[in-house]
Design a protein that fits this description.
Keywords: ATP-binding, Cytoplasm, Glutamine amidotransferase, Hydrolase, Ligase, Nucleotide-binding, Purine biosynthesis
Helix content: 10-25%
Strand order of the largest sheet: 2-1-3-4-11-10-9-6-7
Largest sheet: 9 strands, mixed
Organism: Microbacterium memoriense
CATH class: Alpha Beta
Oligomer: single chain
Number of strands: 11
Pfam families: GATase_5 (PF13507)
CATH architecture: 3-Layer(aba) Sandwich
Protein name: Phosphoribosylformylglycinamidine synthase subunit PurQ
Catalytic activity: L-glutamine + H2O = L-glutamate + NH4(+); N(2)-formyl-N(1)-(5-phospho-beta-D-ribosyl)glycinamide + L-glutamine + ATP + H2O = 2-formamido-N(1)-(5-O-phospho-beta-D-ribosyl)acetamidine + L-glutamate + ADP + phosphate + H(+)
CATH superfamily: Class I glutamine amidotransferase (GATase) domain
Structural class: alpha/beta
Number of helices: 5
CATH topology: Rossmann fold
Length: about 240
């Protein structure tokens, strides 16, 4: 089967086209979905892409979390569908309470763009199963509101339950607690992260590596992992 992965476009989305392209390169079928719809079009997985939905007014992701289609996203998450929130999509997931905590303005109060090293902390999710725990990958990062926060009680639960999916390595670019770059829910089907894996899926267009400039394709594994999870569940 060919996995059909929906990418939801919100007003102000920037990277929905890049996410669709990444899905296609990974061997899946991207399906464009609209924030104002209540129809997921029978997709097998979902991506909430990066951007500045609704201009990041109120709080980044807060208005998008109330969009009509988010009712279906919440139902899909409860049913176990793989869902990935990238940057603004991660902000939507925490605002919709599908992941714990929140995201605030970077500690240095500036927008940041860099190729960011990450360490894989959880390789048991639908989006990370192609990695190994402890593996270091490089994924482009670009955000102004990427500082992860939560209460001390929530942080202890996150750490104790192994819900940190990725940590920043080398530098914490935005002041996130415990160097947290991405989280998973307990079931492992919902993952959110601030860096952009869809920008590291094709040699010649990704981060630099020791092998060659712009040859990094670590982001492709997110999408091949989800496709493998969908196919496995259908067997």
């Amino acid at each position: 089967m060919t996995a059909r992965i929906g990418v939801i476009t919100f007003p102000g989305s920037l990277d929905d086209g890049d996410a669709q392209r990444a899905i296609r390169l990974a061997g899946g079928e991207p399906v464009a979905l609209w924030h104002g719809s209540h129809d997921l079009d029978g997709v097998d997985a979902l991506v909430l892409p990066g951007g500045f939905s609704y201009g990041d007014y109120l709080r980044a992701g807060a208005i998008a979390a109330l969009a009509p289609i988010m009712s279906e996203v919440k139902d899909a998450a409860s049913a176990g569908m793989p869902i990935l929130g990238i940057c603004n999509g991660f902000q939507m997931l925490v605002e919709a309470h599908l992941l714990p905590g929140g995201l605030i303005r970077n500690a240095h109060q500036q927008f940041i763009r860099r190729d960011q090293r990450l360490r894989v902390e959880n390789a048991s999710t639908a989006w990370t199963s192609g990695f190994e725990v402890g593996q270091e990958i490089t994924i482009p990062l670009k955000n102004a509101d990427g500082g992860y926060i939560c209460s001390a009680e929530t942080l202890a639960q996150i750490e104790g339950d192994g819900l940190v999916a990725f940590r920043y390595v080398g530098v914490n670019p935005n002041g996130s607690l415990d160097d947290i770059a991405g989280l998973t829910n307990a079931r492992g089907n919902v993952v959110g992260l601030m860096p952009h894996p869809e920008h590291a899926v094709e040699a010649g267009f990704g981060p630099n590596t020791p092998d060659a400039m712009r040859s990094g394709v670590d982001g492709l594994t997110f999408f091949t992992s989800a496709i493998a999870a969908v196919v496995s569940a259908a067997v």
